[in-house]
Each structure stands twice: as C-alpha cells, then as structure tokens.
Amino acid sequence: MTNTQRTTKSAKSTTGTATADKTYDGFTEEERGAMKERAKELKATSRRGSRTAKADGDTEVRAKIAEMPEADRAIAERIHDIVRTSAPDLAPKLWYGMPAYARDGKVVCFFQSAQKFKTRYATLGFSDLAKLDDGTMWPSAYALAELNADDEARIGELIKRAAG
Question: In this structure, what are the phi and psi dihedrals at residue 72, rounded to the nearest 5 degrees?
Fold first, then answer.
C-alpha cells in the first residue's frame, strides 16, 4: 500500500466515523456559525478605523436585532434602548453575531437570542469587565423570557453598575 493510498483510506475512515457517530463532542453547527461571524467581524473591524467602527456599530446591532424572531427582537430592542440610555459611553458592536456593548473595544455586556444556540430563553450576559462584583459570588448572565417595567429598571441599574 502506498502512502497516498494510506492517506486516502485514513481520510475516508475519519470522515466516515465523524458522520456516523451522532455523539460527536465537537462544535455544534450554531457554534461554528458564531465563530464564522466573529471572524467576519474581526476582518471588517481591521479594514475600517475605530471611528468608523463606532458609527457602524449601532447600525450593525440594529440590523442584527431586526433579523431575530419577534419575541427575541422585542426584548433585544428594549435591551438596546436601556443600554444606550443607562450607559451611553458603551459602544454597540457585534460579538459572535450577537448585539454587544463595549468600552474601549472590550465587550462589557451582550444579548444572546434564544434562537442563537437553540435555547429556551434569551440571555443578557456580562463579561469579566463588568463591574458587578458582589462579595465572592454573583451572576454574570440573566435568562430573559420577557420584560416588564421592574425587569427593565433592574437591567438599567445592572448596566449602569457594569459600565462603572
């Protein structure tokens, strides 16, 4: 058997195993999609200056929100308005294809649609840069099924604290 034949046989058996095995622990289709979106975001950011990125961020975030299913879109629009009002210094941007809000280019918080990874609820998440420290343990993400006035007020306060 030649090296070429071994390589071909090896590639066939690897491919066959991966497709036949339904318990594959690699990245899901949604995770791979998010990584591809992040690569596009980084490429686009490197092509344009930081001033242009800030101007385009709001437009890109609003466009991404508009693509969401109605239930997530309604929540995302409110989150966007709350962040822009509570912490106007945070710049909107896309992060792994999700609306996010950053300080000095670093994500502080983000909104993850339930559709993004096929979960049962949307999520408002905070990075380690968010100033939400409270003792030795505190939440860094919140499940959002819907929003009422009390939720919006609490989110506003969280965003203000997170932005520092």
Answer: -70, -35
